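Assess this today:

___
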Amino acid sequence: MMGRYVSILAISLVILAFSGSAASDTILNGTGFYLATGDSYGLSQGYIIKIKSVSNEGSVWLELESDNKIVKSEIINLKGNFTYIKTNRTILSLKVDNIYSGPGDAKLVSFFPVYQYIDPDMPAPRIIEITPVETSYLDNISAPALKQIISEQVIWSAVIILILILFYVIRKLW
């Protein structure tokens, strides 16, 4: 009986180990961005997503380029997904989240969520490590300006004086 539990535990650990390996292939993990009609957005590994046009009915014509070649072109409806799969591997997946209309033909499209995964056929993306800079706790504290404190005190004093004068005048009139 104990051997059965040990084998189930071992299989579970192997499954967990391999399920986490895809996370290291992730370049963009659920982020979002905005593009206006005719604009493009540069992704990692040289991919470029372009908006060719946006219709009044809520569809977006998208093109994905790599090495100055169109690798995918598709018309996506609002809340629809654009997915680029290369050799049985998802490289890019994004959702047309919303379309905003501006003056004339100007439209702004929001994409959320956006997932990009490493393309093994392309050069590896550069990883830039950011080292946090230590700052003292006191550098991050900002006290309110003295002018603001004085002006609040003056306003409250004026309000109290006006209320007292109002009560005095009303009492004299009765």
In short: The chain has two domains: 26-117, 144-173. The radius of gyration is 30 Å. DSSP finds two helices and eight strands in the chain.
